[in-house]
Amino acid sequence: MAPMDIPSPLTLSVNAETWPIQGSFAISRGAKTEAVVVVAELGDGKAGGRGECVPYARYGESVASVVAAIEAMREPLAGGLTREALQAAMPPGAARNALDCAFWDLAAKRGRQPVHALAGLPAPHALTTAFTISLAAPADMARAAAKAAGRALLKVKLGREGDGERIAAVRAAAPGAALIVDANEGWDMGNLAANLAACAEAGVVLIEQPLPEHEDAALAGMSRAIPICADESAHDRASLAALVGKYDAVNIKLDKAGGLTEALAMARDAERLGLRIMAGCMVATSLAMAPAMLVAQRAQFVDLDGPLLLARDRPHGLIYRDSLVEPPSPALWG
After folding, report:
1. What is the number of H-type helices and E-type strands within the chain?
2. What amino acid positions are annotated as catalytic residues?
3. Is the Cβ–Cβ distance between 25 and 283 less than 8 Å?
4. Residues 86-105: pLDDT tens digits?
5. In terms of Cα–Cα distance, which of 107, 60, 111 is closest to 255?
6. N or C: which end of the chain has fewer CB within 10 A?
């Protein structure tokens, strides 16, 4: 791994891009019809590397703030900033994710070997990914689930009044699919028990972030039939210790962790703490999914369907075959 951390002056390009979503994407906090991503590109005059991130307002990020944070690294990069030094130079978040993944891609292009080899990991293989059913009225969610009923794994967005009817409608429309539920902090102690019971009745295999982050202490020691996964309560490695006893699994997203470097370390620490791993994503193109595929290799649950929710993907995008997603080609990343 040492060659990729040899200091050298690097040029930087950063751009915001807008990608239309098929229909709309709705969770408990709202809906959107387009995905706005930020792409950072690093070059050394001979090779170039790219990384894509999604600014997330939930964590106080905006497109402008993320672009500004990346731009602030222009002078350090020209002065020889390395991927290793980047981890201390920037906090976890979307901006560092784009640069970290660009560093890995650049190293792969420089060394003419894949990122998994540079990182000392086995070659990645195809994985089963979830497909998201957006939050809507029960009948609308049932129609969406019926269209996706042939998929092995569906991720069902909940988090509003009437979620029991929603999950029952989805289960009836897709009787053969495994179901993950994501409440996006939308439940409270007043409806938690009823919603957990409805999920158990529907045979749900995992529930993500049922309570707001600041209220999740209530999960400590709680008996439940379904494993509960931290999402908004999980950020980088520093957040993991507080999850033990409250959660059974952790959703690792590169935009939260601040890049592939931290995400891989986070996965190792989560395993050591006895937490199962989910590899998740924001709604983005295949360029954002590609590095996450390496984290997903050690995950029990994979949710890397971002490009499937878009009206179109970028060239050389990931190949999806029904529920399977293939590792990226070098033309895309890594």
Report:
1. 11, 14
2. 157, 253
3. yes
4. 999 999 999 999 999 999 99
5. 60
6. N
